[in-house]
Amino acid sequence: MKYTPWPKRDLVKNYFQLPNEIFLLGLSPGALAVYSYLLCCENRKTYQCWPSYKTIGKAVRMSANTVHKYVCVLEERQLISTENTSVTTKAGLKRNGNLLYTIRPIQLALDQFYEQQLAQIDVAAERQRVANALALRNDSTHSA
Fold it and tell me: For the whole model, what pTM was predicted?
């Protein structure tokens, strides 16, 4: 009997890729978990999936409300977009369905993140300029 330390891995089946850049965005562990699960579920051709909050919550061990919170964070960061869906019951009633998630290109999220960082730097520089101007003004009034 031959000993095999690791089972043979199918390089495509049962795996998905997580972009390295995701770690540059400063997401919380919960947001990373929800994003990872959505990537795991997505159709690789359409970049879409539609698990319920409850299904995502079971997979990542969070409540549906917590999943909702992280989905909102992922939308704000432009990592995903969501659309409401509807289903028709056998009785002919129209009901709300699960959200349809579309995984967006990571570059959009990175561009937004860098723009926000630059805006924060601009605000900090402006505050420093105003503080310096006030300090000079105070110094000139005390000298006189």
Answer: 0.75
What does the block give as tokens for 134? 């006030």
pLDDT tens-digit readout, 3-57: 666 666 565 667 778 888 999 899 999 999 999 999 999 998 999 999 999 999 9
Q: Where are the domains of the chain?
A: 20-143
What would be the CATH architecture of the domain defined by 20-143? Orthogonal Bundle (1.10)
Per the structure block, which two tokens stand in for 58?
């079971």
* 80 bridge partner residues: 103
Give kind and range of the element (H or E) at residue 66: helix 64-76
Cα three-residue angle 89-45-37, rounded to 5 degrees? 70
